[in-house]
From TrEMBL:
<feature type="domain" description="DUF2061">
    <location>
        <begin position="1"/>
        <end position="52"/>
    </location>
</feature>
<dbReference type="InterPro" id="IPR018638">
    <property type="entry name" value="DUF2061_membrane"/>
</dbReference>
<protein>
    <submittedName>
        <fullName>DUF2061 domain-containing protein</fullName>
    </submittedName>
</protein>
<dbReference type="Pfam" id="PF09834">
    <property type="entry name" value="DUF2061"/>
</dbReference>
Length: 76
């Protein structure tokens, strides 16, 4: 947990520093420092849902008789 917390703090520091270097604005840098991780968290949630659905579909496809036959012929 300490590593994760340290990485999070480092991420915020880098985000603030880069944004401040580009804009010279403390207000914009502060806003982006916290807006970006919030947006990223929401995007990650939907990405996980997409990825889980993709894995479920792959498992379903692998369990079909056609997929087992194709795998048998591919191994031969």
């Amino acid at each position: 947990m300490a590593k994760t917390l340290t990485f999070g703090i480092m991420h915020l520091g880098i985000a603030f520093s880069v944004t401040y270097a580009l804009t010279g604005s403390l207000a914009i840098s502060g806003a982006i420092t916290f807006i970006e991780p919030a947006v990223n968290t929401v995007a990650h949630y939907f990405f996980d849902k997409f990825w889980e659905r993709r894995e479920r579909q792959a498992k379903t496809h692998a369990a079909t008789p056609e997929a087992k036959t194709a795998a048998r012929y591919a191994a031969a």
